[in-house]
Design goal:
heterodimer, A: about 200 residues, alpha/beta, four-stranded antiparallel β-sheet, four-stranded parallel β-sheet, 8 helices, 8 strands, about 15% strand, globular, B: about 450 residues, five-stranded parallel β-sheet, 19 strands
């Protein structure tokens, strides 16, 4: 997993609530047996119509917006447990998703892939969304070490929560398998005690 | 200290606790399928990590399988490859697999309970959000991502923070024509799609106590649609009777010993929940959804609410419905009875009971997809197949099918489908398809009438 410490980037607004994982990556693209290529089909049915024509109204297709931060509406990532959604967002180039609320399984999947699900207050999200829409060139700084997200242009910032263990993993690029394997003896002892 | 059903099982499975961090939770049973497992197998292979406890894993092929001509080679190359990968991975790692055509093959959340794999007091996971289904037996069961599938492969454990506890109580007597599906759609319509996030939900009250295991599975199945990682119902005589004598259930004195343990699991009377909701069975009616998330549901006799926000409007625009209107008399061309929510024998009995002696409307394509080979066999043995075929319904072979439309079972663009599945997201049943979630009874009635009817007026 790639390390995540701090990023400064422009952002893409996605002012839709309850974005489910079927929208992030439709089921018909889940037939692959590796993690590659999902980025090409992220938000497929919002980015393109059935004939493959680009939907210019959709923010990811709008040349005004770019960057590795996605600003999304409330309850992002609800629905299916498919980790393909996290792979698709990472594959497209996102490093941070900002929302006022994340669904549980998506949140875990994102963290396991070095993608930061950054939860902010609804009022901060509103400011962020408005600012990015009006001034797409706005730079946003996400500092994981200090757990802050800031817009230096307008002097606004907010701190965010992250599990201390997961923060260490993100900063160092560790994953849970490494940790669990280090506990193998303890797991075996637990098993023999139960039998 | 008083404990909830959830606390009791969770606490018995904690291997270790990281200071100010998650806990190491031991997993008893790991269910896998073709879509969310290949990358996890690859991960372990690349890192030369062996599968730690292959005998605690059971595999099935369900998401990406055809529902006709299962005996023929699969035409879609990618699907074929994915299924072959599953077979190879299971063979290489000594994992039990019920592949396509096997007499135990079926949707993972239908197959495992009917084989007696699902039991009270267990921790169970699967790379599928509807793993919450198994909570109907008083087990801790939840969906996981593929990274976590790899973690369980490697260590039979997961790193998790203990979720908060939520209890939804429904007391009273359900009205005629109100099915378990209506109960859960009603609850989600009242609480919304994220009210359960961060919680594990216990369903309590005599409505759930009176339900069959099939009904309890339908309820727990949709817990994730209100955001809860899992749902559970206290095990009781209904649970024990269901498990007894099934293929992998404990036998003889072992079974009796297990039952005495299972009886210790229900929440203590004075156990405290972080959040509680109470509903009255009398207020629940047959439900339908009108929007693009499962929380957007109304009683069939109600009208679509009026809300002034852009996501709500976008949703109605997609569905081509108007705020304030009723769904009764809405013409419907597709009906799907199936999915891990409603593809058990009881669901087909309800449908057959309504359909018997009637005919499917000419405009409707009606697919009936059993949840497993065993359900399929039962449908034939009980004479339901004849009823369905005489009425013009198409009985297909088991699988997830049109619930997520990964295979060829897709609803065409712009068409409405009254579906017994669990999600009405945009394009869920095919690009541009419009899903209306309902019970098997409402679905059957829609297929007969060719439109949505007020089912409460059509019951004897």
């Amino acid at each position: 997993m790639e390390k995540f410490i701090k990023i400064i980037s422009k952002a893409i607004p996605l002012a839709i609530e309850n974005v489910d994982t079927d929208q992030i990556i439709p089921a018909r693209f889940l037939k692959a047996t590796d993690k590659k290529g999902f980025g090409d089909n992220v938000f497929r049915d919002w980015r393109f119509d059935k004939n493959g024509n680009t939907n210019l109204e959709f923010s990811l297709n709008n040349d005004l917006y770019s960057g590795s931060i996605l600003i999304a509406g409330d309850n992002f990532g609800c629905g299916s447990s498919r980790e393909h959604a996290a792979w698709a967002l990472v594959g497209y180039g996102f490093k941070v998703i900002v929302s006022s609320f994340f669904a549980d399984i998506f949140k875990g999947n994102a963290l396991n892939n070095g993608l930061l699900p950054l939860q902010v207050s609804p009022s901060f999200l509103a400011v962020l969304m408005k600012t990015v829409k009006e001034k797409p060139e706005t730079k946003i700084e996400v500092d994981l070490e200090n757990q802050t997200i800031s817009l230096s242009d307008i002097n606004v910032s907010e701190t965010f929560e992250i599990d201390a263990y997961k923060k260490t993993c993100m900063i160092n690029g560790y994953d849970d398998i490494d940790y669990l394997l280090s506990k193998k003896e303890m797991i075996e002892a637990f098993e023999s005690l139960r039998n | 200290m008083s404990k909830t059903l959830f606390d009791k099982i969770w606490d018995q499975h904690v291997v270790d606790t990281i200071k100010e961090g998650p806990q190491v939770l031991y997993i008893d049973k790991h269910l896998i399928h073709e879509v969310t497992s290949p990358q996890a197998f690859n991960e372990l292979k690349e890192r030369s990590i062996p599968i730690f406890r292959p005998n605690q894993i059971v595999a099935t092929a369900d998401h990406n399988t055809p529902t006709i001509n299962q005996h023929l080679p699969i035409k879609d190359k990618l699907s074929k490859n994915q299924l072959e990968q599953l077979s190879k991975n299971c063979f290489d790692n000594n994992i039990t697999l019920y592949e396509l055509g096997h007499k135990y093959n079926g949707i993972v959340h239908v197959m495992a309970p009917e084989l007696g794999i699902t039991q009270p007091g267990l921790t169970m996971v699967c790379g599928d959000s509807h793993t919450s289904t198994h909570g109907a037996f008083g087990a801790i069961a939840f969906g996981i991502g593929t990274s976590q599938v790899a973690q369980v492969f490697a260590s039979q454990c997961l790193l998790l923070k203990k979720p908060k506890s939520l209890r939804v109580t429904v007391n009273g007597k359900l009205k005629k024509g109100v099915l378990p599906k209506d109960v859960i759609l009603y609850i989600i319509s009242k609480l919304g799609t994220n009210s359960g996030t961060g919680y594990f939900c216990e369903y309590a009250g005599n409505v759930f106590e009176d339900m069959s295991m099939e009904g309890r599975m339908t309820v727990c199945n949709m817990s994730i649609e209100m955001g809860a990682r899992g749902g559970m119902i206290a095990p009781d005589e209904t649970t024990f009777n269901y498990i007894k004598d099934r293929q992998f259930a404990p036998k003889g004195t072992d079974f009796d010993k297990k039952v005495s343990y299972w009886k210790t699991l229900p929440s203590d009377i004075d156990a405290v929940f972080d959040q509680e909701y109470i509903f009255d069975a009398d207020d629940i009616g047959p439900m339908v959804t009108y929007g693009t998330n499962p929380g957007m549901g109304i009683k069939i006799t109600e009208t679509i609410p009026k809300e002034n926000n852009s996501s709500f409007k976008k949703s109605l625009e997609y569905m081509n419905f108007e705020a304030g209107s009723s769904l009764i008399d809405q013409r419907i061309n597709y009906v799907f009875i199936g999915s891990c929510t409603n593809s058990r024998i009881e669901d087909f009995r309800v449908a057959a009971n309504f359909i018997k002696g009637k005919q499917k409307a000419d405009n409707v394509t009606a697919w009936l997809v059993p949840g497993s080979k065993q359900v399929e066999t039962q449908i034939i043995e009980e004479g339901l197949k004849e009823i369905f075929e005489n009425a013009g319904f198409e009985l297909r072979q088991p699988g997830c099918s049109a619930c997520l439309a990964m295979n060829d079972d897709k609803i065409p663009k712009g068409e409405y489908c009254v579906s017994t599945s669990n999600r009405n997201f945009e394009g869920r049943q095919g690009q541009g398809s419009r899903t209306i979630l309902a019970s098997p009874l409402v679905a059957a009635a829609t297929a007969v009438e060719g439109k949505i009817i007020d089912i409460t007026k059509h019951l004897n």
